[in-house]
Design goal:
- The protein contains 2 helices and no strands.
- It is an all-alpha fold.
- The N and C termini lie far apart (about 30 Å).
Length: about 60
Amino acid sequence: MIFYSNHNIHGLLQIPEYARALFEMRQPPLSEDIVERETAARMARKSVFEREPAPALSFVLE
């Protein structure tokens, strides 16, 4: 799947509740197991912040 999103960085800056809501509103609806799995996978992406050396990130908020 290819996604373009200029307002979200999937998993890095999202809270679990927001990520879950995105999966729950999908059409056709996803099963609860898939919602759980995809939410957990998205939250796991935050491990990028725990790497050594830490990544250099910058964000522009308008």
